[in-house]
């Protein structure tokens, strides 16, 4: 696994919804929030980058959002979140989404062996959908202490 350590500012401005995770069902919570977010984005015809972004936060909270082309001119009900990382690990997972959890754990294990400690937030940016799951791309960003 080729995990990159990056010491450069990475900032995300995302719009979506956050919610508490129940019974450790992070993906279930994120999917519900993502569906709610996309309904508003589509109804309001908000220009966006089309990439789902999941942000895992302390206290078993997950945020599901998308980057918009510009700040909405009118109130949409979407929450705005700005995340800035300055010291983080990066890995691009290529393959089925159901292997992301396993890839994330392998990433954490490698970082620990290399002497790094991860802290939240942890970010997953999902690339554009493709019916061939073997080529799906998901970028993983782990904040380092």
Can you describe what's shown?
The protein starts with a strand and ends with a strand. A hairpin with a 3-residue loop joins strand 3 and strand 4. It is an alpha+beta fold and 145 residues long. 22% of the residues lie in helices and 39% in strands. It has two helices and eight strands; from the N terminus they run ββαββββαββ. Strands 1-6-8-7-3-4-2-5 form an eight-stranded antiparallel sheet, covered by helices on one side. The model has no long low-confidence stretch (mean pLDDT 96). It has a single domain (4-144), classed as Alpha-Beta Barrel (Multidrug-efflux Transporter 1 Regulator Bmrr, Chain A), CATH 3.20.80.10.
Short descriptors:
single chain; about 140 residues; alpha+beta; eight-stranded antiparallel beta sheet
Short structural summary:
This protein has 145 residues and is of the alpha+beta class.
Topology:
Blueprint lengths: L3 E3 L3 E11 L5 H18 L9 E5 L3 E6 L12 E7 L2 E7 L5 H14 L4 E9 L10 E8 L1
Antiparallel strand pairs: 1-6, 2-4, 2-5, 3-4, 3-7, 6-8, 7-8
